[in-house]
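Quick one from the shared queue. A colleague (R.T.) flagged Bulb-type lectin domain-containing protein as missing a structural entry in our internal table.

Convert sequence to structure tokens.
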Amino acid sequence: MKKVQGYWIILLFCVSLHLYAQAPNWQWAKAIHTGGYELARDVAADTVTGNIYIAGAWENDLSAYFPGNSYPSTDFSSTYGGDDGLVVKYDQNGTILWAFKIGGNGDDEASAITLDSSGNIYITGYIDNGTNYFSGTSSSTPDSAISNTSGLDFFVAKYNPDGALLWVRHSDGSSGDAKGLGIYAENSSVFASGYCTGSTSFGPFSGSFNQGNED
């Protein structure tokens, strides 16, 4: 995969709705940049608290942005290996509340993020071969490690508003890849979308979804 130097940039502005278009009133902007690879894929906002959540991917060293013990269980001086998924929570003023990484030895990504009415967080994306970690802000979370034995796997993970893992599910492909690209939560249901190639299983549902190159 070709990688390019990138910036993680978060912008927040308010727009007054009038009969005629007005210039946006910028509130704040944040950037995360190390000279490596940083990518913000998706954003979700809590309309009650004003908190903002970002999902994406990174490599290199982010310890200058997430230092010391401010973010329990997460060492941001390096990824688990390759690219890791990254989830960050900001308050309405742009102050970082917490952050954690997702992944293992390969290239992994948090591609989409959404919230339910209780403020729980749902993330989808993909993980590469090997053991991948989803422990969130707690290093003691049980069953936070997932083993992927082939290609890329599609995952859906749920975290509480403090970033603690509640559960995680993933596809299991005997051939080809699967990636989660979109996610939505309503009431007690979660809907995720993406694509796959070859033979892929989703819990009790399995089969060859590949009717061409990608489905």
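The two ends are 21 Å apart (CA to CA).
Residues 8-12+37-208 form one domain.
Added to the table.
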